[in-house]
Amino acid sequence: MTTAPTKTDTLLSVRDLVVEFGAKGQTPFRAVDGVSFDVRPGQTVGLVGESGCGKSVTSLAIMGLLPKRGNKVAGSALYDGTDLLTLDDREMRDRRGRDVAMIFQDPLSSLNPVVSIGVQVAEVLQRHRGMKKAAALAESRDLLDRVGIPDPTRRLKEYPHQLSGGMRQRALIAMALACKPRLLIADEPTTALDVTIQAQILNLLKELVIDSGTALIMITHDLGVVAGLCDEVNVLYGGRIVETASRHEIFATPRHPYTNGLLGSIPRLDGARSEQLAAIPGSVADNIPWTTGCAFAPRCSRAIEVCRTEPPVLEQDPAAMEEHALRCHNPWPIDEGTRGPA
Amino acid sequence: MSEQMFTLDKQPSSRQHEVLLDAQDVEVHFPIKRGVIFDKTVGYVYAVDGMTLQIHKGETYGLVGESGCGKSTFGRALLRLEEPTNGTVTFDGTDLSTLRGETLRRKRQDMQMVFQDPLSSLDPRQTVESLLLEGMHAHGLTKDKEAAGARLRQLLSAVGLPAAALRKYPHEFSGGQRQRIGIARALSVDPQLIVADEPVSALDVSVQAQVINLLEDVQEQFGLTYLVIAHDLAVVRHISDRVGVMYLGSLVEEADSDELYKTPLHPYTRALMSAVPIPDPLIEDRREQIILAGDLPSPANPPSGCRFHTRCPWRQKERCDTERPQLRVVQIDGVPAAHRVACHYAEQIQSGEIQRHEVSATAVDPAAVQDVPTVNLQEGGGQPFSTQ
């Protein structure tokens, strides 16, 4: 496995992250299998993949939110020189919410149903910035206002069930931003929302990244969201990164058959209505382990002999003009492989 | 292959030559009850509020809208899984609202449903074989054992499952395969119309494409008519011949699929389309989004006049607040008569005579009943992400 050196201005550098689940004596299941990526300040990095590809587990491991028992984490996640994976509970609690914050998919289950919104936002300020309750509540009001919640004074006293889905997500973003973290991890923040509300939330995130210089890790299955938001895109399959490039590069010349397959599977709002979608056959259950070959080989239209016998390595595509790494023995040729329109 | 056991009263004149399903002014209002001893009705949730549409034989009609717009309730009301409080549904010449008991049950053979979540709509303790036979048995299609067995195998191969699947249980399948079972079950009684409520939204992208392709294949093979209900405009556009856009209980726009996506006329349709992310950074960087302010108003307390006026960036004074627009054909060059829109100012907006203005978000309380005022619209408010 090639381990790229960490660049100097990197905020978070994840190297060879491995997460295994399974009790003692059982064959462990590798949910994340050697994931490495960098996040620079002000940058938005996308982790894209379908359910079970390890994208959420990656973020939970970085945040130290995996359950204490039944899993093994290896590798490193250097944040500003400190390895987040080696911190103990107390040190991690100090950083979580202050340096690194997270937004989850389902805002209703991430909020405490019996505590008012105002107190939940203020709690973060009291804990990390040592503010008094009154001052913290006043600041919470400003935060709610900033994320676009109408009538914030009234909303402070309300409970999560009284807010709509979009508004709950905004409240969660307000909490995440309370201490101006330098890194924000958003795990499918708009998947539970309607498209018009999704557009509002994505716009809000975009503005926040530009205004505050916060780095953002965007975890999503929606390539459309990625196309509008992310600077750099990592496509995950079966716990490993299979393709990584800048967003313009990856959408213009998707080389990996899986990335191509994903793009071909999405019906698009623009362009011609073709007769059939180019679906990827089979399901994740057909995967073969990465140790024997390429996990995607059983579903891949371009699979050749070597794909089932030798695991491919993530390496820079020699034909690419810029940084574009691939984990594939037989990628699509640049001229004909692109199913995404030019 | 099925024999009609009962001759149904047919209304001779109302039957058009190819309309399979005709819904006229369908309303479903759910009462909101409060009180400890006496259930006092304090208001209504106007889930479906005046839906009129026709579905032609052999076509796919797509119904899109956001959550809470009443699209699922409407789909259920068509099959009388939900009792409409008003309006008529005529299916193949029969007025469904006149059917009772056994006659209605028999009629259900022609109208089947595919649900969103295949795991919760399949009985976990029934094998696939038993799941598929249940409906056939109820409609007397299993009298000939051999023919029934042959039909099971035909169904499975039609939805792309191996014959060995018959003896398995729903939990033994992946999400995509379960949805295939759900489709096979709907097909088992040889229906004419299938109402598919969010058939692919619970599935992963790559599997989603497989199921969409499957729906198209079986439509061709069995000559089916579909009503596809979904929130994903791209999916609906892909599989539908005609599309209706719903907002707060009624249609705001209806047109042929390609036409609708080429020239969306209703402000809500425009906003919806601009909000759908397109997997192409070049387009994403260029295109102008219409970001709607605020949330969907509560269907328990819908706004007066045009339902969309509280969020509409093109709203005009007076008329939009007071007069509810009806679906109408617009006088715009190049827009066919089949393209209907419920907006007073569709022509002026299209010609650019009326320009977009800012709308500030309105607080919407999901628990609001009628006595709570929710309409609080200010123009030109300084919200951080109102329309530019």
How would you concisely characterize the structure shown here?
Chain A is an alpha/beta fold. Chain A contains eleven helices and twelve strands.
Describe this structure in words.
The complex is a heterodimer of chains A (342) and B (388). By secondary structure, chain A is an alpha/beta fold. Helix content of chain A is 31%, strand content 20%. Chain A has eleven helices and twelve strands. Chain A has helices at 55-63, 89-95, 107-110, 117-129, 133-146, 152-156, 165-177, 195-212, 223-229, 247-252, 257-265; strands spanning 12-21, 29-39, 44-48, 71-79, 82-83, 100-103, 183-187, 215-220, 232-237, 240-246, 315-316, 324-326. In chain A, α4 packs across α5 (133-146). The model of chain A is unreliable at 337-342 (pLDDT under 50). An eight-stranded mixed β-sheet of chain B has the order 6-7-8-3-9-10-12-11, with helices on both faces. A four-stranded antiparallel β-sheet of chain B has the order 2-1-4-5. The model of chain B is unreliable at 1-17 and 369-388 (pLDDT under 50). Chain B is globular and about 70 Å long. In chain B, a hairpin with a 5-residue loop joins β1 (19-34) and β2. Chain B has 388 residues and is an alpha/beta fold. Helices cover 29% and strands 20% of the residues of chain B. Chain B has helices at residues 71-78, 101-107, 118-121, 128-138, 145-158, 175-188, 205-222, 233-239, 257-262, 267-275, 281-286, 319-322, 346-351; strands at residues 19-34, 40-56, 60-64, 86-91, 94-95, 111-114, 193-197, 225-230, 242-247, 250-256, 328-329, 340-341. The interface between A and B is large, with 59 and 60 residues.
